[in-house]
């Protein structure tokens, strides 16, 4: 029996569940792409919380697909073997040796995520973009410069992911692909998440990262932007205040919105259960990227 003085606690829990109801209805059977990267990946406790959130999304009837990164872990291993990690415009310069390391590290990250999801009682399948020709690529240049085995996705074989979802698996995608000659390429995980969200007709694309969201000025935490229209995002990209890994991320947000993904969000993966907070409460967190025509408030619709 619930004691009288404990009743409020239980009522509060009931309130939280009721608040989630419209969101559960809205995203029921909808495809949600979660790009998982940044430091939320290197902290074991946070990692477990993120994976628990995604499995919960699956169990309440959404169709999540995880696309993971692992850039920090790759750089750690690149350093371990005595090489220096190098990036241009947020993309890793990838020579033969680096490519080998990237594939080894991302393969390990992929299976570790599969293991975590399986341990929570949800069936997961880890695939690399090589499997079944999931991600076909061509060489990607950075400002016209050749940066090695870095791929730009030219084709997504969405049939594989649709089949996995159909059979109720949670697909976990590793951002590696092959070109027409079957050479292996390293794909920025934000790029991979964006093309997959587009090809799968995802309702929502959420980028989990290691910062609160997009800042107008990254030196000033007061300038966090909670709602960013595509037009403003493009202006911001040319302002010089967007740098490093935020460049491909914001570019992909714009690309996803312009290709019809309804909801695109950058979330702080360091906040425990940020995905649940974003999906199931009235309070938006992080930065929502919005269509220019969307004049309504993101969470107030
Ligand atoms: N204007 C900006 N607002 C937010 N982050 C920015 C901005 N400019 C550069 N960044 C950097 O982008 C990083 C996020 O990109 P990245 O490290 O590639 O994340 P992930 O590994 O999650 O893909 C932040 O940690 C921050 O250092
Ligand atoms: C071409 C390129 O830059 N590939 C990325 C792939 C991993 C990644 O994107 O990881 P995060 O999302 O955790 O940064 C890299 O080698 O770091």
TrEMBL record:
<keyword id="KW-0055">Arginine biosynthesis</keyword>
<dbReference type="InterPro" id="IPR036393">
    <property type="entry name" value="AceGlu_kinase-like_sf"/>
</dbReference>
<feature type="domain" description="Aspartate/glutamate/uridylate kinase">
    <location>
        <begin position="30"/>
        <end position="268"/>
    </location>
</feature>
<feature type="binding site">
    <location>
        <begin position="70"/>
        <end position="71"/>
    </location>
    <ligand>
        <name>substrate</name>
    </ligand>
</feature>
<dbReference type="InterPro" id="IPR037528">
    <property type="entry name" value="ArgB"/>
</dbReference>
<feature type="binding site">
    <location>
        <position position="186"/>
    </location>
    <ligand>
        <name>substrate</name>
    </ligand>
</feature>
<feature type="site" description="Transition state stabilizer">
    <location>
        <position position="35"/>
    </location>
</feature>
<keyword id="KW-0808">Transferase</keyword>
<comment type="pathway">
    <text>Amino-acid biosynthesis; L-arginine biosynthesis; N(2)-acetyl-L-ornithine from L-glutamate: step 2/4.</text>
</comment>
<keyword id="KW-0067">ATP-binding</keyword>
<feature type="binding site">
    <location>
        <position position="92"/>
    </location>
    <ligand>
        <name>substrate</name>
    </ligand>
</feature>
<comment type="function">
    <text>Catalyzes the ATP-dependent phosphorylation of N-acetyl-L-glutamate.</text>
</comment>
<keyword id="KW-0028">Amino-acid biosynthesis</keyword>
<feature type="site" description="Transition state stabilizer">
    <location>
        <position position="249"/>
    </location>
</feature>
<dbReference type="GO" id="GO:0003991">
    <property type="term" value="F:acetylglutamate kinase activity"/>
</dbReference>
<dbReference type="InterPro" id="IPR004662">
    <property type="entry name" value="AcgluKinase_fam"/>
</dbReference>
<dbReference type="InterPro" id="IPR041727">
    <property type="entry name" value="NAGK-C"/>
</dbReference>
<dbReference type="Pfam" id="PF00696">
    <property type="entry name" value="AA_kinase"/>
</dbReference>
<keyword id="KW-0547">Nucleotide-binding</keyword>
<comment type="similarity">
    <text>Belongs to the acetylglutamate kinase family. ArgB subfamily.</text>
</comment>
<keyword id="KW-0418">Kinase</keyword>
<protein>
    <recommendedName>
        <fullName>Acetylglutamate kinase</fullName>
        <ecNumber>2.7.2.8</ecNumber>
    </recommendedName>
</protein>
<dbReference type="InterPro" id="IPR001048">
    <property type="entry name" value="Asp/Glu/Uridylate_kinase"/>
</dbReference>
<keyword id="KW-0963">Cytoplasm</keyword>
<dbReference type="InterPro" id="IPR001057">
    <property type="entry name" value="Glu/AcGlu_kinase"/>
</dbReference>
């Amino acid at each position: 029996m619930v004691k009288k003085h404990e009743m409020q606690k239980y009522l509060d829990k009931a309130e939280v569940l009721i608040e989630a109801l419209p969101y559960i209805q809205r995203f029921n059977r909808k495809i949600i792409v979660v790009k998982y990267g940044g430091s939320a990946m290197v902290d074991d406790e946070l990692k477990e919380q993120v994976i628990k959130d995604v499995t919960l999304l699956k169990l309440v009837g959404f169709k999540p697909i995880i696309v993971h990164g692992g850039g920090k872990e790759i750089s750690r291993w690149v350093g371990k073997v005595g090489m220096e990690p190098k990036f241009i415009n947020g993309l890793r310069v990838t020579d033969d040796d680096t490519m080998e390391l990237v594939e080894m590290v991302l393969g390990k990250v992929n299976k570790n995520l599969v293991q975590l999801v399986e341990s929570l009682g949800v069936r997961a399948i880890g695939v690399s973009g090589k499997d079944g020709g999931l991600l076909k690529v061509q060489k990607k240049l950075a400002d016209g410069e050749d940066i090695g085995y870095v791929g730009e996705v030219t084709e997504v074989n969405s049939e594989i992911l649709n089949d996995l979802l159909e059979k109720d698996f949670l697909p976990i995608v590793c951002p590696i692909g092959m070109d027409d000659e079957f050479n292996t390429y390293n794909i920025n995980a934000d790029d991979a998440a964006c093309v997959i969200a587009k090809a799968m007709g995802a309702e929502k694309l959420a980028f989990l990262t290691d910062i609160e969201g997009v800042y107008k000025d990254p030196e000033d935490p007061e300038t966090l932007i909670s709602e960013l229209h595509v037009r403003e995002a493009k202006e911001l990209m040319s302002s010089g205040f967007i740098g490093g890994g935020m460049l491909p991320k914001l570019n992909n947000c714009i690309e996803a919105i312009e290709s019809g993904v309804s909801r695109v969000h950058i979330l702080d993966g360091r906040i425990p259960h940020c995905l649940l907070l974003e999906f199931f409460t009235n309070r938006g967190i992080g930065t929502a990227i919005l269509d220019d025509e969307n004049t309504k408030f993101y969470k107030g619709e």
